[in-house]
Specification:
Order of helices and strands: EEEEEE
Number of helices: 0
Number of strands: 6
Largest sheet: 6 strands, antiparallel
Radius of gyration: 12 Å
Amino acid sequence: MLTDIPTSSETHEYLRFEVGWETVRTGDVIDLAGQGFTVVDVVQISDKVKGLRFRTGQSLMMNPATRLSALRAVERR
């Protein structure tokens, strides 16, 4: 999955954590069935639904109960 993150390991560290519909953001790499999907767009569809679009062109709908495993690149200090 780390190959899906377009940043350098020299300048960034990679943190794995759980994301929900309120915390997911573009650039996150979502782990679905062991494959990494990079989020390129997050769209508010309704009060309780967000849509994620991945680099592959696929999409996923999230509601407030959805929790997913993700990697996020964070700049080293």
